Amino acid sequence: MPIFRKFEGEETVTRTRRHMPHWNADGATYFVTFRLADAIPVKAAQAMEARRLQWLSTQGISNGDSSLLSTHELRFEYRKRFGREFHEALDNGLGECLLGYAETLEMMTAVFRHFDGDRYELGDFVTMPNHVHVLLVPLAPHSLSEILHSWKSFSSNKINRMRGQSGTIWQSENYDHIVRTWEELGRIRRYIRANPQKAGLRDSQVRYHEADWDQP
Questions:
Q1: Which helix (H) or strand (E) element contains residue 29?
Q2: I need a labelling partner for 84 at 20 to 30 A (CA). Which of 48, 133, 143, 188 fits?
Q3: Is the distance from CB of 182 to CB of 5 less than 8 angstroms?
Q4: Cis (ω within 30 of 0) for the bond into 141?
Q5: Could you state, in order of their start, the residue ranges of all structural domains in the chain?
Q6: What element of type H or E holds 193?
Q7: pTM over 0.85
Q8: By the 8 A CB rule, do 108 and 134 touch?
Q9: Which residues in the chain come in under a pLDDT of 70?
Q10: Which three-class secondary structure state does DSSP give residue 20?
């Protein structure tokens, strides 16, 4: 059973970034989205990035690092504006949608559950045809980046073997967000549960898991 701990200690966060900023904190609950390499066309992804950088520039941030936003309200607006655009693009169901088959759906479920209780506490998740949403709590000394690398490395090898091919399966960068309150956790859980219906998918095209959360 995953345990949710309210997150207030932004001073304890370590920050890294590639195109997007990534925050890391011990004991935090993360909402993570990762997608297949072809889930968002290159031109669409570039256009989204240009809009993101332009908006940050209007807030006085020229290097694209949203963690430099000065207030909670601006950070909330940023997540609402650009997180929504990113997730709506995924729900268009573009690309080969390699995850939308029974064999790959079952494989991804097994991947998520394999180290549950050992390297992380697994929360709600849904595997969609071209992307995944998952809630999890990493367990020390295992980091979020280590866990995601393991999931993606193992599953990409399995998918390539299933297809008898080779090549890049996953987009290298992930969307991750630290969940701060019990109320926010509830909103994200409802989003995960509703995502298949919102995207117009049948039950056979997705795998959904609902966890029993607890508070300390």
A1: strand 29-35
A2: 143
A3: no
A4: yes
A5: 17-38+96-209
A6: helix 182-198
A7: no
A8: no
A9: 9-22, 67
A10: coil
